Amino acid sequence: MSSKVHNQYLPDYVSPPGETLLEVLEERGMSQADLADRTGRPKKTISEIINGKAAITTDTALQLERVLGISASFWNSREQKYREFLARQQEQARLQVQIAWLEKVPVKEMIKLGWIEKSKEKVEQLQIVLNFFGVVSPEQCDVYWGTKALAFRKSVAFESDRIATNAWLRKGELDAQKIECAPYDAEKFKRALEEIRSLTVENPKEAISKVKQLCAAAGVVVVLVPSLKGVRASGVTRWLTPTKALIQLSFRYKRDDRFWFTFFHESGHVLQERKRDVFIETDEKKDYDPNDAMEKGADEFAANLLIPKQPLQQFLENGKLDDREISLFATELGIAPAIVVGRLHHDGVLAYNRGNNLRRKIDWDDFV
């Protein structure tokens, strides 16, 4: 699990370093005035330090080391811990009034999936969620991810549940950060896609580890992240760095043909190398702009890589679209029969109630 906070030791109270300074002075029979004279500091400053109204600066810490023989690092550490304690107290008070924001976040789902830990304390739960998103407050979460949203393709998918979609995107980002990969190489990635094409005959669950390895060697990270309620995104492509691309896929695919087409569609976006753009896909045709050149280009890339135009045209000219002929054609191409069925359905040359027994169902339970 990620975003841990409650394994840290956070004391309920940290005394100001001035209290320690006062104890040292009393032990040595030294007055505040004596210390002021020895350090050259105003008496008022010494009094404010002892009463916690003024901080021990690095210069003062060095002076205390000279006068009292207690290292400057000790005084600096005491001051730093005290100031951190005060800052945490202020943060606790600030977050206390922002707890209601948690109601907008799919916290229970995220806990169930192991993305975040559960806490009985509301403020701590809020801290865990903010740690997950990598922001300091609900306001900054809205600002940061709202800015990110401007890069996301305008679609119903993103608007369906913005915070849940943000969480899904963030989880993919976090998973991808853990994966090492070579610098992006377009030609190497194209060769990897040719090899992955032959893996479509395997069940996606069995082939995915090979897919990840081949892509990582070409500078593309592939992660599978289960979808949250309200998130209609089935895939996303974006660049984490100029040399590291991310293809993020959800578990929304129930059939192997949809899984593979979406993967190759996202791969098409990678090859477009629009490194400032983010492309989110859904299973809903109504979410897409038919005039979107980038989407059309990715569709054409995936379609033609999986089933080249000329062999498809020759197959259609034969006029035989039964399961046997589809399977033979798929074998000739070296791809899964389901991909041929999906293409024929999409092109409207095969009724949607035909060929479905050649499409394999995918059970993602082992991935969750």
Any chance you could write out the topology, listing elements then pairs?
Blueprint: H1 17-28, H2 32-39, H3 43-50, H4 58-68, H5 72-96, H6 107-112, H7 122-133, H8 138-149, H9 156-160, H10 162-177, H11 186-198, H12 204-216, E1 220-224, E2 233-241, E3 244-249, H13 256-272, E4 279-282, H14 293-306, H15 309-318, H16 323-333, H17 337-347
Parallel strand pairs: 1-3
Antiparallel strand pairs: 2-3, 2-4
Helix pairs in contact: 2-3, 4-5, 11-12, 13-14, 13-17, 16-17
How would you sum up this structure, described in words?
The protein is built from 17 helices and four strands. By secondary structure, the protein is an alpha+beta fold. Helices cover 55% and strands 7% of the residues. The relative contact order is 0.08. Strand 2 and strand 3 (244-249) form a beta hairpin. The protein has a four-stranded mixed beta sheet, sandwiched between helices. The longest helix has 25 residues, at 72-96. The chain folds into four domains: 17-96, 434 Repressor (Amino-terminal Domain), CATH 1.10.260; 101-149, no CATH class; 156-305, no CATH class; 309-367, no CATH class.
Overall body shape: elongated
Protein structure class: alpha+beta
Biggest beta-sheet profile: 4 strands, mixed
Q: Helical element count?
A: 17
Separation of the first and last Cα atoms = 13 Å
| Domain count | 4
Helix content: 55-70%
Sequence stretches where pLDDT stays below 50 over 5 or more residues: 153-157
Mean pLDDT: 89
CA radius of gyration is 30 Å
- N-to-C series of helices and strands: HHHHHHHHHHHHEEEHEHHHH
Count the strands? 4
